[in-house]
Design goal:
The chain has helices at residues 11-19, 37-52, 72-86, 93-100, 113-130, 147-156, 180-193, 209-219, 250-253, 257-275, 284-296, 304-307, 432-435, 443-453, 462-481, 496-503; strands at residues 28-32, 61-66, 103-107, 136-140, 168-172, 199-201, 233-241, 298-299, 308-314, 316-318, 321-323, 341-348, 358-363, 370-377, 397-403, 407-415, 423-431, 486-489. The chain is of the alpha/beta class and 512 residues long. The strands form three sheets. Strands 7, 8, 9, 12, 13, 14, 15, 16, 17 and 18 form a ten-stranded mixed beta sheet that branches. Strand 16 (407-415) and strand 17 (423-431) form a beta hairpin. Helix 2 (37-52) packs across helix 3, helix 7 (180-193) runs antiparallel to helix 15 (462-481) and helix 10 packs across helix 15 (462-481). It is globular. The relative contact order is 0.13. The structure holds 6-O-phosphono-beta-D-glucopyranose.
């Protein structure tokens, strides 16, 4: 197929490019906050899995930066243990040995100039010994309060400079700010040091296969999109339920709460992908433009008291074991009002969605771990089947099962076998495990590879982050003026207030 004379596009070449393995060129990754949980459970195993899948270059280098008094070998041992415990792919000694050659540790604190000089020397040494070509990504897996100092130090020590065709990139973990004002401040600091194309803000939900599949489902098919609008959709429910409590994360979680922790980022990104218009192409600019447009059209209901709920878990039973309440968790202040559950109703002011509520909910210590997007359709306008009134049937729904049982379910009414015309709801399922033999990369694997390739498709832009805070800020401010949060026992599906919120609209939450 020859290139189109008008656009120069070559669909065949593009299709082939998409099927070729995407392999990172000469490069390295520096992790700040390397002693933290995220690093051990996700980042180190992801690096190993990428190497094991042959997607990293031979001299790939991994540098840890932390206060611990570790030698390179101690760091390599920590990575080794993390890989053995958390990697997805089998352990292969030869892959490990090659990866271990590029491992270095820099000891120091974020405000110490000498440590950043030593980081610079380490990078120079790796460029010579491992052929990393000066290409390094800096992963800030550090408490939010430390973002500014690390970014300033990178600038001060010339580590953000892209010399002689090399690249430098910053990867910033969430939470990106605490509210709109702090996110704007952080963005302006980041942009003093890095060009926009050097900055990768992590939202690990975008690295999940099922989340990327939302766009495939909507825009690679003809049968769903015609129904995907206010003429057919009654409402949308986006649920991210977790069965775990806050674990050992009191220091991070208390004062942040469920809405800031996951609605501001993961759930609003899911909403954006579900509701946005078709992008002109699957490239970072086009995607960001559409996500930004739809996030900018989100409207909060005027009565926040009736359309938001925040709650805290109390002691209860979960999976046959007794679970303590939030206020009894280690490190939590007795008077804490932090939300461990949040439900909000949003609307989108555009032609496609006007009048269709989007209900978002999330919580810790709920009935079970499940994330899903349910597009619930209007009832059939009329039933010709005599005694089976349409009101008796559930509404058709299309449920995108993000996790853990990845796939999609369509619910619809069907005739019950027998001599009468009785209709009952049934499901049609698509399960990843049954339809594909390919294994999904872990979200962090995909995202780290994208950073090394400079592919920004799956990373929220400045505007998206700020618009998301703009949506959440008035809710948080409203909650601050309210009394104590509602309560729900651990192991249940949240507070009665959340059920009442939907009941007022004549609807109910799905029980996933
Ligand atoms: C993180 C939140 O972003 O996502 C955690 O900070 C939450 O509180 C986690 O537990 C859930 O991620 P996943 O991939 O297990 O759904």
């Amino acid at each position: 197929m020859s290139p189109s004379p008008v656009t120069g596009a070559n669909p065949l070449r593009d299709a082939l490019d998409r099927r070729l393995p995407r392999i990172a060129g000469p490069s390295g990754l520096v992790i700040f906050g390397v002693t933290g949980d995220l690093s051990r459970k996700k980042l180190m195993p992801a690096v190993y899995d990428l190497a094991n899948r042959g997607l990293l270059p031979p001299g790939f280098s991994l540098v840890g930066f932390a206060r611990r008094e570790w030698a390179d070998e101690d760091f390599a041992q920590v990575v080794h243990d993390a890989v053995k415990e958390h990697s997805r792919t089998p352990f292969r000694e030869e892959v490990w040995q090659q990866l271990a050659q590029g491992m270095r540790f820099v000891q120091g604190s974020f405000d110490d100039d000498a440590s950043f000089e030593s980081l610079r020397d380490t990078i120079d040494e790796l460029n010579r010994a491992q052929g990393t070509g000066g290409n390094f990504a800096f992963y800030l897996s550090v408490p939010p309060g430390s973002f500014p100092v690390v970014i300033q130090q990178l600038k001060k020590h010339g580590l953000a400079d892209q010399k002689d065709g090399s690249w430098r990139r910053a990867v910033i973990e969430k939470p990106f700010g605490h509210d709109l004002k702090s996110a704007e401040e952080l963005n302006s600091l980041v942009h003093e040091v890095f060009q926009p194309e050097q900055v990768f803000r992590i939202d690990h939900y975008l690295g999940k296969e099922t989340v990327q599949n939302i766009l495939a489902l909507r825009f690679a098919n003809q049968m769903f999109e015609p129904l995907w609008n206010r003429s057919y959709v009654d409402h949308v429910q986006i649920t991210m339920a977790e069965d775990i409590g806050i674990g050992g994360r009191a220091g991070y979680y208390d004062g942040i709460g469920a809405a800031r922790d996951v609605i501001q980022n993961h759930l609003l990104q899911l909403l954006a992908l579900t509701a946005m218009e078709e992008p002109a192409s699957f490239d970072a600019d086009a995607l960001a433009a559409e996500k930004t447009k739809v996030l900018g059209a989100v409207r909060l209901p005027s009565d926040l008291g009736a359309s938001t709920v925040r709650a805290q878990y109390t002691a209860g039973w979960q999976g046959g074991a007794k679970a303590v309440g939030y206020l009894e968790e280690e490190g939590i202040d007795q008077s804490s009002r932090t939300d461990t559950y949040a439900a909000i109703k949003l609307e989108i002011d555009n032609r496609r969605w006007a009048g269709v509520p989007f209900y978002l909910r999330t919580g810790k210590r709920l009935g079970r771990r499940v994330t899903e997007i349910a597009v619930v359709f209007q009832r059939a306008p009329h039933s010709p089947f005599g005694h089976t009134a349409t009101e008796e049937l559930g509404q058709n729904a299309m449920v995108i099962r993000v996790q853990p049982d990845e796939g999609m379910t369509v619910r619809f009414g069907s005739k019950v076998p027998g001599t009468s015309m009785e209709i009952r709801d049934v499901s049609m399922d698509f399960a990843y495990g049954e339809s594909f033999t390919e294994s999904s990369p872990e979200a962090y694997e995909r995202l780290i590879l994208d950073v090394l390739l400079g592919d920004a498709n799956l990373f929220p832009r400045t505007e998206e982050v700020e618009l998301s805070w703009k949506i959440l800020d008035p809710i948080e401010q409203f909650w601050d003026t309210e009394g104590a949060p509602a309560q729900y026992p651990a192991g249940t599906w949240g507070p009665a207030e959340a059920d009442e919120m939907l009941a007022r609209d004549g609807r109910s939450w799905r029980r996933p």
